[in-house]
Request: fold
Amino acid sequence: MNGTLEVGIAYDLKSRFRAQPDGPVDRLEEYDDESTVEAIAAALEAHGYRARKLGGGEAFVRAVLEDPPDLVFNIAEGFGTRSREAHVPSVLEMLGIPFTHSDPLTLAVCLDKAIAKRLIASAGIPTPAFAVVRSPRDLDGLKLPRPVIAKPLFEGSSMGIRKSSRTDDDAALSAMVKGLLDDYGEPVLVEEFCSGPEFTVGIVEIDHQPVSVGVMEIAPRTASPEDFVYSLEVKRNYLQEVDYHVPPRQPAALVRRVEQVALASFEALECRDVARVDVRVGADGEPKFLEVNPLPGLNPVTSDLAIVARGKGIAYEELIGRIVASARARRGL
Reply:
């Protein structure tokens, strides 16, 4: 019976951290609001589980040491390093406590965009050409098809990505890279810009196999499709900036190829339970892997994964239940 199973929720709230007055405006963008945690708890209880809030950081460690739950529903982003998303699952692995979502290795690999792309390319999955830039000097002689887009190497939630992040001008690229290096204190990924339609694919495992929840096309309202950047400004103002199409308006054959790229990426990076994969069509007309989020946002209203599920007739409670069911099947709970 689900009622005998206590599911703790590991999470990091924006309110836990202090914004830096001189830091970038999106420094806390990845972290959750209380409403998301409440929605997950309600969904778990709707399935008969006993939900318990564990928080993150030291409070989480104390909670699981003093009274470990049967399973942890992990959405904790961690803090401070490129392996921050692996902090909570590493503690859980060490203590032998089952948890949802991917293991520490996959979470750390996926957060570093260049490492993820190298693994993806080694598996034969197409991804845009890229370079890792640690200093503006690294741009000298950079041979990438133009235009390019620049972004922080290991951030999520479109942090550091603005409408102006796409450029074909060397001087603008140099200034952009310098700004990103100064603001985020980490290397910058510069990659070939894909000018075709943009998609995100939700994936949940069923019977140990990744299954597409659905494919969503992200279509700009105020920019030309060829120049569109799914930026921080767009995400914060999505009702005016974009239309979300589930299913996509694109030809069925193209959507199938997008789905295939996403599922192959999920498997190549050894994701578990759930993930969301971003894919965009390149100048050659072929879908390319952009990045994967193995800790996708789960706000019931605004998160891309919830929007995809809703578009396919999957209620939020069912989505949360599928993620837990996958983790339980994997651990025999």
